[in-house]
Amino acid sequence: MAKRVGVDKWLFGTVLLLVLFGLVSVFSASAVLAKATLGSPYAYVAKQAIWAGLGMVALFILMRVDYRRYNNPKLIFPLMAITGLLLMAVFAMSGMNGAHRWVRMPGITLQPSELAKPVIVIFLAWFLQTRIHTIDNIKETILPAVIPPLLYIGLILKEPDLGTALVCAAVVMLMLFLAGMPVKWLVAAIAAASPVMYYMLFHVAWRAARMKVFLNPEADPKGAGFHILQSLIAVGTGGIRGLGLMEGRQKLFYLPEPHTDFIFANISEELGLIGALCVVAAFCILGYRGLRAAFLSTDPFARFLAFGLTTAILVQAFFNMSVVLALLPTKGIPLPFISSGGTSVFVTLACMGVLLNVTREID
Length: 363
Description:
With 363 residues, this protein is mainly α. The chain has one domain. The chain contains twelve helices and two strands.
């Protein structure tokens, strides 16, 4: 198959629009809060713009690097080791709101769990490409494939960050399913994980309280149910057309984290159902173009790589929007490209650079 001169323009354009829209959304959601707490309405958006700019530089560089270079254990295993060390290093740092999710260095703060997602994808793409015909072998294929990701997931759960851990677990299962793992083993894995999930959700005190609130937020509207109710008020207030950009009310110290975890609620309030559906449509286009590259690729490594990177973004976006709409319990998961968060936007854009390079091989 002849090598294509350019990358997928639909995918590139969608990513660019999401990033630009994200900067506008972060400013709209954070200006008042930033002015009140940090003295400048541009504090959050300026930081986000720097990281987005660095992410775009990474995207342009990586979309010109042949993806086959990542198909090398001499690169993959050091990358896995560094990521594992960073995931352990968070526990040596001071926590924030009872969580240890960040590595703080002079002038920079990193969230290693964001790096864990693409590292898991690259590892599985490399490992599974030659194991497709033995995918039903527990000892030779399935266990060696899942043990490294499970170690990462365990560390992420310890932080604690159940949302990101679930995203990683979902990506692992989807990639194994793509490789042809029998459904019976997927069902067995879900059955084995169910008691663990039940314990974490209903026997860890603060998560159990969160589950009760999720089922009945009106029981404590000014306390534990505040997040969910304010998010639903924001979404409902927006109606069809929204109140207008910058005109949202819930971000005025009602809606918690309006520029990060609940930015989709602010978008829904200001741009209405039409704006929210446009965001959903953008992710659908991104998903279609990414999965198209995966399924049209004749290189197994490229197929797994494109599939894993695409599904990681789609699963994360689904979780974030579901939390905002009270379809899932509250989790600290950012909306890719849009939520404020330096590590998230940088790593996601770097991943899109890799994916765009894969699209060069598709006619």
